[in-house]
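Lab channel / #folding
Pinned by the channel admin:
"Please post every new chain as: sequence first, then the structure tokens as a reply. Keep commentary short and put observations after the output so the thread stays searchable."

First post following the new format, from NK:
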Amino acid sequence: MTNHFQTYISKKTNAAPLAVFRIGFGLMMCYSIIRFWAKGWIESVYLEPKFHFSYYGFEWIQPLGNFTYVLFFICGVAALFVALGFKYRWAIITFFLSFTYIELMEKTTYLNHYYFISILSFLLIFLPANATFSIDNIFRKRSFEQIPNWCIDSIKLLLGIVYFYAGLAKINADWLLKAQPLKIWLPSKYDLPIIGESLLQQNWFHYAMSWSGMLYDLCIPFLLLYKRTRWFAFVLVVFFHIFTRVLFPIGMFPYVMIIGSLIFFEADFHKKIIAFIKKMIQKVIQINASAIAILPAYHLKFKKIILPIVLVFFMIQIIFPFRFLLYNGNLFWTEQGYRFSWRVMLMEKMGSTTFKIVDGNTGNFFYVNNSDFLTPLQEKQMSFQPDFILEYAHYLGDHFSNQGHQNVEVYVESYVALNGRLSQPFIDKTVDLYQEKESFKPKTWILPFNDD
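Reply from TO:
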């Protein structure tokens, strides 16, 4: 077993696929930052709110006021440098830290693909993505033809985990037996040309989308790995992600997955891409390629440190999505262990949550107008997510205590509808949430989910 592992670790492959991946990833991330800025989301998401929802353990990460624009600028420039392969190691570290900080500032922005970008950029810190076709090659006057094979396989594995786990998550009664939440979402797209008023209104199509989505996610990593089905699989990737992008506003994620899937192709395919890019560049800038020495193989520095880090990284990625098994109750209802587990677009959840501030001694109380403290997006996300409700309850308790209210207790009346069902009581309204603490322990104040 050890000998097989050592043989695999020592195996080399052409560096071109990783270089193409670096370029595509960096350019898409740079564009994403520009897009976010241009749409005014920096102000509306990070500067306008009075209060920001935080991740447990990362409450110290907060927006930086007007310096938040500087943070986004640094992130965008770092992404561009990653694409160019300029000061690559510093650039990818800077991008990982700045992008992850941005995502941790406000929990309402959580999306699976933002998490994917963070962990992918962390992985790229340890990979020689600038070994060939980078500005670093020009300054160092050397380029490397080959890199360790596991460097490319690690990206394939991460993409495979995302797809396969997303497929496993779709094996549930709501998705397969009730076509939910697609049965809610698809008919609302009636304004789409051709298919909006016909296909998207058909019950059979809702089930076809549910089942095909599950099969696609489970099978696509293996179809991409197998040479004979690779082109067919890539056509499926393009069709699937473009179609979902048309149907749903999911940002850059479809394009990230399409470009990312290119890494499954053989080196000759990527060499052609690099040759094409070189041709375009040479029309603008003349580069003396003969001054760059081409060395046969890149020897990874700090190999004994990097390999254990990468192995632990993948152990976490494989095990962490199953942490929901530690909790009782319906996962979609309690959401304990729901995030960071590749459960992509699996539920439609709406809530109505009212907070009551009570004087524990006199019993006097009043209700809170959530819009006084939260933006519409924050209020919507808070209304059906238990950790949001708890954090907001503590914020309200602290706020009114600081205003001089005595013996503050915070109670919640909450009703939530899941995947087309009638709304049900969500939070035990007899529990003072101001006394409850956030932790990884089960939240006993979440009422049981009743589903006939």
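NK: The chain has a mean pLDDT of 92.
TO: also worth noting, The CA atoms of residues 76 and 183 lie 38 Å apart.
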